[in-house]
Amino acid sequence: MARVKTLPKGFYLGAATAAYQVEGATQEDGRGQNMWDVYLAKHGQYSPDPASDFYHRYPEDIALAKEFGLNAIRLSISWVRLFPKIDGPVNESAVAYYHDLFKTCLDYGITPFVALHHFDSPQEMLEEGDWLNRKNIDRFIKYAKFCFLTFPEIKNWFTINELISLASGQYLGGQFPPNHHFNVSEAIQAEHNMLVAHARAVIAYHDLNLPGRIGCIHALKTGYPNSNRIEDIQACKRYDAYNNRFLLDGTLLGEYQSETMQLLQEVLQANDASLTILPEDLAILKKAAPLNGMFGMNYYRSEFVREYHGESIDQFNSTGKKGTSAFKFKGVGEFVKRPEVPTTDWDWNIYPRGLFDMLMRIKRDYPTVPTIFLTENGMALKEQLNKEKIVDDSRRIDFIDQHLEQVLKARQAGVNIQGYFVWSLQDQFSWANGYNKRYGLFYVDFETQKRYPKKSAYWFKQLGASLEE
């Protein structure tokens, strides 16, 4: 029995996508190469073409979103589609494509929320150090300003998606190019530089006196000590400082609190790592913080943390075979699986309480936080069509239902959260998992590109109807 049957008036019920995971068409209409194109061609087991063929099929997908009760969608722009050469001229066919995509959304009464960067730096940017090279911050601001001015129909902008996931994938776990492993200096420096890039984009947006709002998206994971031991409690504090607090401070406070930096210093020292913060960086962060018009939070799971001082290990579950993952971060802590907490096939803890706890923590510790949107939440499953061409994803419905319940509970407790975006609209290409990890409301037969609404889509349709009553 569903816990959530109605949503508040004015609430956004949406679904999320990312350009590289859905568009396909990587060789079409003058598009340039991003870091994944080169990496997957050389090392990948999977091809990003045709992905969900959204580049050609977006009218169908937007129509489905409308039909099944959604009133919002999260999209991202492919930087290399707009600018095939990072310092070169704009690709006018890409401008036309995104104008038409956004118009299609608006014509259906679906509000587009658009991210400028979603894990897909141009290859030229990667070759010059990606976010570790401050020259690329300048390039990002130029690209951002172009988008702000070229697409005035967009009133809800996000700068960068999941700074922590990008930096960790590139420089800790090595699942993302350039595939460095536990280079903590690079990871934390990339995060800081992205925070500066975000802040500069926010300032630029406001300097242009545009009528919309802007923010960034953080992937937050609530940490809990695995026991009452002082050592586990301290390990959890270090984990929280690295994964959540550093990013929340930089975005919402515009300064890094002394306790945050003390905890981070413990992590840096344990890994012979360093972080460079220029004086002007802090001034930029401080100026931008009150200008954030919204805040995007992605939540999938929480972690239980215990003390760990050995060498760092990241065993990544890329197949969906349960029990094959492990994460141990020198000087931070080790993730522990608890028998009473269920997990997905990819070993992610299913812990809705962590969402409520994080929302309440943000309200308490960052009282000037603007409107919050849960910009990603969802459950990956291994799925197949049955003979009736139906996917019974009741486990996904239960997962979403439990998390939506926590969102509404947080609202009742005074948290200004105004929207929920499921990951994802349709089945998509996954960066490190290919095509067997399905999140969508709509099943995609990747051979024919035919769409099939899942049971969860029909559940969403009922939920969306409550917004119109």
TrEMBL record:
Q: Where is the signal peptide?
A: none
Q: Which residues form a coiled coil?
A: none
Which GO cellular component terms, listed alphabetically, does the Swiss-Prot or TrEMBL entry include? cytosol
Per its UniProt record, what SUPFAM superfamilies does this chain match? (Trans)glycosidases
User: Could you tell me which PROSITE patterns the record lists for this protein?
Assistant: GLYCOSYL_HYDROL_F1_1
Catalytic positions?
Answer: 376
Which keywords describe this protein according to UniProt?
Answer: Glycosidase, Hydrolase
- GO biological process terms held by the UniProt record: lactose catabolic process via tagatose-6-phosphate
Name the domain of life: Bacteria
EC number(s) on record? 3.2.1.21
One Gene Ontology term of the molecular function aspect? beta-glucosidase activity
Q: Which PANTHER family match?
A: GLYCOSYL HYDROLASE, LP05116P
- Family per UniProt? Belongs to the glycosyl hydrolase 1 family.
Q: Tell me the protein's name.
A: beta-glucosidase
Recorded source organism is: Lactobacillus mulieris
**Which lineage do the record's taxonomy fields give for this organism?**
Bacteria, Bacillati, Bacillota, Bacilli, Lactobacillales
